[in-house]
Amino acid sequence: MSFGYVPLKEAKNVDKEIIGSIVSNQLADFPGSDIKYGYITIETDDKQHIRFKVDKYTEYESLDIGKRVKVQFEDLGNTEVTVSRKVTAV
Question: Model pTM?
Answer without folding.
Answer: 0.80
